[in-house]
Amino acid sequence: MSDTRKPFPFDEFEPRWQSRWDSEKTFRTPNPGEEGFDASKPKYYVLDMFPYPSGAGLHVGHPEGYTATDIIGRYKRMKGFNVLHPMGYDSFGLPAEQYAIKTGQHPAVTTAANIENFRRQLKSLGFAYDWEREIATTDPEYVRWTQWIFLQLYSSYFCEETNKAKPVAELEAKGWSRDEIDNVRLAYVADTPVWWSPDLGTVLANEEVEEWKGKGHTVERRPLRQWMLRITKYAQRLIDELDTLDWPEGIKLLQKNWIGRSEGAEVIFAIGGKSVTVFTTRPDTLFGATYMVLAPEHPYVSEITTEDNKDAVEAYKKACSAKSDLDRTDLNKDKSGVFTGAYATNPVNGEEIPVWIADYVMMGYGTGAIMAVPAHDVRDFEFAQKYDLPVLQVVQPTDDSDWQGYTAPGTAINSGFLDGMPTKKAKGAIIHWLVENQKGERKIQFKLRDWLFSRQRYWGEPFPITWKDGKHYALPDSELPLLAPPLEDYKPSGTPDPLLSKARDWVELPDGVTRETNTMPQWAGSCWYYLRYCDNSNSERFISEAAEDYWTNEKPGMVDLYVGGTEHAVLHLLYARFWHKVLFDLGHVRTPEPFQKLVNQGLILGEDGQKMSKSRGNVVNPDDVVKEYGADSLRLYEMFMGPLEQVKPWQMKGVEGVSRFLARVWRLAITDEGNVSEKITDTQCTDKELLRVVHETIKKVGEDIEKLSFNTAISQMMICTNAFTQAGTVPRKEFTQFLTILNPFAPHIAEEIHRLIGGTELLSEMEWPAYDEQALVRTECELVVQVNGKLRDRIWISMTASEDEAKELAFASDKVKEHIDGKTIRKVIYVPGKIMNLVAN
RNA sequence: GGCGGCUUGGCGGAAUGGUAGACGCGCUCGACUCAAAAUCGAGUUCCAAAAGAGUGUGGGUUCGAGUCCCACAGCCGCUACCA
C-alpha cells in the first residue's frame, strides 16, 4: 500500500483522537472523594503486566495483552463500571546497567529515554489508560514504598501458631534476644552458596543463571553473605489458597510443582558416633535400604571418610565443584559416586549399609542425604547396577510387573512387621515406629527455597539498612527513600563486593555505622505495583486505606483481571502473592491474594512459525504496522488472530484483511470525497433481517467480550458489516449502535465516523447498547433431516412446528424417501429448530 | 525422564453432543478500467462428477462425536537426578 493512498485517513485522525482523550482526560479514573467520583458505580480493576522499558521498544507481544485489557476496560466503562486500567514501567534491571558499563551513561538517563519511547508507543495505540496513575519502579517516591514494604518484612516473623506474619516487636516484648529475633525475621541475612557472575558483578537467582550464561557471561558457585526472604514459611498457604483463584489450571499446577510439596519422613541413621538424617517419601521401604548416599557437599563427608578412601573422596568432591558450573543435564546421564569407607546403621533392623557420596544427591533439597532403596527407586537402581550394590525387594507389585525398579504402591514384603501391608498403611506404621523409637518423624518437604533477595548491582533499590558492630538496623521510615549515590564507574570490580561499596562517602556514616551496599532484585518493584496504581500520588502511605478499601474485592483476589505472559507463571506471580500475604497478615491490605482472575496471552510467533528473535530476522515492530495500517488495524488484527491464550503466528496479510474490514465500515458512512454517505438514513429500519443481524451482533459481541473471545466477536462484526453493505441503506440508529460496540476494539475509527456522521457525544462515554430480544426472534428456520445420522435434506419449517408436522414435511421430501424406502422407522429424534434424525432399518 | 499445552481445508482459525470448515487470508472467474491497483459480485474440504470420504491414529459410549471415555503417535513449551 502506498503512503498516498490509504483506505481511510487513520494517520490524520488517530493522533487527533489520542490527543483529545489525553487533554480531556477521558479515561481518568476518580478515587473516592475525588471530583467526578460516583459511589453508585461498581468498580472493576483490570491490569496488564507492566513492561520492562528496554531500548528495543514494544514488540508485538505487548499490544496483544494490552489490547485485550483495553477492550475489557472500555467495555466495562460503557457498562457503567468505574474502571481502573493503569500502566507503568518495571524500570530497574540489569540491561540499563550493562548499557551504562559500555557507555558510561547513567542508567537513570537511558531508563528515562526508554520510558518516554514506551509511553509514545503505548499512546500511539490508543489505550484507555488513566495516565495520571502512571508509575515507574525507579521513581524515588515508588522506591520509598518498596523499601518501606521491605522493612515490614524485616520487622516481621512467621508465627507458627497462627500461621501468619506478626511484628517482631511482639517477640521483643516477650523478652526474646536480639539474636533470637534475627533468626526468625522474614528478611534475614545468611551465608549461602549462590551463583556469582564475576563479569556481571552480581549474584544471580537460580532461574536467571541460564539466561545470562546464554549471553556469554560466566557464573560460579560461591558461599556469600546475602539477604534472604523467608517465603518457605508461606509454602503451604501459597499452595492451598490457589484454590480460591480463577487462574488457568495449568498455571496453578506450575506453581504447585514449583513449591513442590512432598509428604514423607525423616529417618535417623547412625554412622559411628554421629547421626545422619535422611528424607524419604517412601519410609515404607526402609527395610530395603542397601546403601546410603550423601551429597558431595554434605558437611559430614570429610569426618566419616576412612583413610583408605580419602584420596578418592577428595578427588570426587573437587571434580563435582568444578562440574557444578557446567551444564548438569549432560553429566547426569551417567551416575557417578565414590564409597567413603563408612557404614551407617539402619535404625529399623540394625543392618550396616555402605555410605557413598554421589552428585545425584543434592545438598539443596531435603537433608542432602538419602537412604538408597535400589529395588524401588529408578535412580538408586541405576546407581546400584553401576557399582554392583545389593538390590533387595521390599514391595510386591500389585500386578505382574517386574519388582526391580518398581516404584508404584504395592504390598510390603521382607519388611518385618510391615509385611503384608499395602504401601499406604506401611508408611503410617513405619512412621509410628520411628516416632516411638525416636528414630525419625513425619516430615513435609518443599522444593521451594527461601528467596535470595540481594544483588550486587547498582540499578536497583538499595536496602534501607545500616550496620554497626556486625548487626543490622532498619533505617527509620523518615529517611526513606534511600537512593543510590551517583557513580562514575559501573564496571564490576571482579570481587563479590557490591558496586555501591565503591561510594565510600555514601557508605560510611558517623560512629562506625555503615550502609548495606546490596540492592534488591528487579522482582521487588513488580511485587506490589498493582497496589500503588490505586493511589499513586499518596505521600503518606503506600496506599491509603480508603483507596485500598474501594479498589479491593469481596473475593480473595484484589485485581479483577490480570493479563500477561506465561513466562511469569512461577516467579513474579509467586513473589507478588507472597508479599501480598505478608501485607495481609500485618493488616495493611484486606484481601489475602493480589490477583483474582489470571489470563495468559499466547506467544505471537514470527511469520515463519518460529519464536520471534533478532537472529532469525522475523521480528515485527508495532511502530511499522501502525505507520502502514494504523493503530486500529494493529489492535484488531492482534485480537482477530485467534484465541487470546493460544500460541499463533503473525501474518501480515491478516493485518491487511482487518484493515480492509475497517475500510468497508468507513465506506458505509463516508464517501471518497469525505462527505457523509447518502446511504445513511434517518428513518426507522424496516429490514427485519438487517435488524436481526445487528441485534445478534450486539448480543454476541457483548457475550464474547465477557468470555475474552475477541476473535469471534470481530468475525460477528464483519458479518454485521457485510449485512449493512448488502442492505444498501445504513439506518443511523443501528449503525451508531454498531459503532458503539466496535469502539472498544477500534476506538479511533469508531469515534471518527461517529463524529463525521454528526455524533456529538464521545462513543467512549456512551452506554453499551442493549439488544432487543424481539428482533432476534425467527419465525421460520431450516430444519436438517438426517436418516441414520446422515444429512439427507433441509426443509423450511415454522419454529413452533410440532414433531408430527415436521415428520410430515420430512417424509414428503424425495431425498428422504429415497433413503427410508422399504425400511421401518425405528425412532425419531426431533430437536426443534435444529435437526430431525430418522432411525430406520 | 516429569509436567503442561496443541493437532480441524492451501494458511490463521469457527463450531451449548445436533448441517464440520463461520469469519478472514490466499486462489479462481466475472464486473469496473486503455491497463493496472483499489473496489464490487460469484466460487473455493477432497474426488472430473454422482456415489462417497473427511477434524493426528486405533478403539468405545450415543439416534448422532471435532466435541465425551480409553489407548497411542507427532509437534510446541516449561522443568529437570526433588529422594
DSSP summary: helix tally: 30
Low-confidence stretches: 325-331
**Arithmetic mean pLDDT:** 91
Radius of gyration: 34 Å
Strand arrangement, major sheet: 2-1-23-24
Class per helix and strand makeup: alpha/beta
What global shape is seen?
Answer: globular
Report the strand count.
32
Into which percentage range does the β-strand content fall? 15-25%
Helicity range: 25-40%
Distance linking N and C termini: 61 Å
Largest sheet: 4 strands, parallel
Walk me through the structure.
It contains 30 helices and 32 strands. It is α/β, with parallel strands linked by helices and 841 residues long. Helix 22 (631-640) crosses helix 23 (652-669) and helix 24 packs antiparallel against helix 25 (710-727). The structure holds one RNA strand of 83 nucleotides.
Which characteristics define this entry?
841 residues, alpha/beta, four-stranded parallel β-sheet, four-stranded antiparallel β-sheet, 30 helices, 20% strand, RNA-binding
List the helices and strands and how they pair.
Elements: H1 10-23, E1 43-48, H2 61-78, E2 82-84, E3 88-89, H3 94-103, H4 107-123, E4 135-136, H5 140-154, E5 156-159, E6 164-167, H6 169-173, H7 178-182, E7 187-197, E8 202-204, H8 206-214, E9 220-229, H9 235-240, H10 249-259, E10 261-271, E11 274-280, E12 291-294, H11 301-304, H12 310-323, H13 328-331, E13 337-345, E14 352-358, E15 369-372, H14 378-387, E16 395-397, E17 410-412, H15 423-436, E18 440-446, E19 451-452, E20 465-468, E21 471-474, H16 504-507, E22 514-515, H17 523-526, H18 529-532, H19 545-551, E23 557-565, H20 571-585, E24 593-601, E25 604-605, H21 622-629, H22 631-640, E26 648-649, H23 652-669, E27 680-681, H24 688-706, H25 710-727, E28 730-731, H26 732-742, H27 747-756, H28 773-776, E29 780-787, E30 790-798, H29 803-812, H30 814-820, E31 825-831, E32 835-840
Parallel strand pairs: 1-2, 1-23, 3-4, 12-14, 23-24, 25-26, 27-28, 29-32
Antiparallel strand pairs: 5-6, 7-8, 7-9, 9-19, 10-11, 10-18, 12-15, 13-14, 16-17, 20-21, 20-22, 29-30, 31-32
This protein binds one RNA strand of 83 nucleotides through helix 10, strand 11, strand 15, helix 14 and strand 26.
